[in-house]
Design a protein that fits this description.
By secondary structure, the chain is of the alpha+beta class. It has a single domain (6-80), classed as Cytidine Deaminase, domain 2 (3-Layer(aba) Sandwich), CATH 3.40.140.10. Helix content is 27%, strand content 19%. It is built from three helices and three strands.
């Protein structure tokens, strides 16, 4: 769902997560990114990482050709936003 106007973009990672959630999933442990393009795959954007952190993603795997790169979510997004309304006073 990406387009030229980045502010209107909905990345594939978020589309996949929202689809899973709308079909009953509540915790997603691993996200795998892959492509058949010749260009390398970049790690997810901050918006996607925030959504991943809220649904419990622990690992992001990037597959490009025969190369597999594993990241834990903390490496990619060490300080996710938290809901201040849920914090203890």
């Amino acid at each position: 769902m990406e387009n030229s106007s980045l502010g209107l973009t909905v990345c594939a990672e978020r589309v996949a997560i929202f689809n899973a959630v709308s079909n009953g999933e509540r915790k997603i442990k691993t996200i795998v990114l892959t492509s058949n393009l010749d260009k390398p795959i970049y790690p997810p954007c901050g918006a996607c990482l925030q959504v991943m952190s809220e649904f419990g993603v622990e690992e992001v795997i990037i597959v490009h050709g025969d190369k597999v790169i594993r990241h834990n979510i903390g490496e990619l997004f060490p300080r996710p936003f938290t809901d201040w309304r849920k914090q203890d006073s």
